[in-house]
Specification:
The structure is a single chain. It is built from eleven helices and two strands. A two-stranded antiparallel ribbon has the order 1-2. The termini are far apart. It has a single domain, classed as Hypothetical protein af1432, CATH 1.10.3210. The mean pLDDT is about 95. It is mostly helical. The longest helix is centred in the C-terminal third of the chain and has 20 residues.
């Protein structure tokens, strides 16, 4: 494969990431966001919080983790947090996707190393990105007045059950989540469906 052919192959791959639809919206939009939009928002938010909170994290590493954190979904697809479809084989699909990416782009060793390191969550940077990834959807849904929670019939308790432990891996993000939960409880009757 020529250098240009390799570049074209990778650019085609990046186009595929735009096609991965998530069950999450950008407030004010009617369509669901895709993996690229989500990863971009997560990357900027992570960078913003590092600066705002004066966090002693490796900013470059955080940005790389945020960019690659959902890249396996290009081939594995997104799995909705509050649904049942796809959960039973999510780990297998993502592992196979990671192997496929490694075989298609063996020369991009850094990419594969960062994906693996992110999945292991053994450093504070990966845990920060992981926790922030779990916070970003409730923030976006809050900003659209709970519209998606109503559409998907998701209760506050379901959000707390799914998010709390995951977000707790990073103290800074957990602090923001605790503040968000106060707002969610205050507006529970309007943000969430009545079950």
């Amino acid at each position: 494969m020529t250098p240009l052919e390799s570049l074209l192959q990778f650019v085609r791959f990046t186009h595929l990431t735009h096609k991965v639809e998530r069950v999450a919206r950008i407030p004010g939009e009617t369509r669901y966001a895709n993996t690229v939009e989500h990863s971009y928002q997560l990357t900027l938010l992570a960078w913003y919080l590092i600066e705002k909170e004066n966090l002693h994290l490796d900013k470059d590493l955080v940005i790389k983790y945020a960019l690659v954190h959902d890249l396996v979904e290009t081939y594995a697809g997104d799995t909705y947090a509050h649904g049942t479809e796809g959960k039973e084989n999510k780990a297998l699909r993502e592992h196979e996707a990671q192997e496929r990416m490694a075989s298609e782009f063996p020369e991009f060793k850094d990419l594969h190393a960062y994906i693996e390191a992110y999945e292991l969550k053994q450093d504070p940077e990966s845990r920060f990105v992981y926790a922030l990834d779990k916070l970003i959807d409730p923030v976006n849904i809050y900003l659209e007045d709970g519209k998606l929670w109503h559409e998907k019939n998701v209760t506050l308790q379901e959000v707390l059950d799914y998010k709390t432990e995951k977000i707790a891996v990073d103290a800074t993000v957990a602090k923001y989540f605790e503040e968000l939960v106060v707002l969610l409880r205050k507006k529970e009757n309007t943000l969430f469906p009545k079950n």
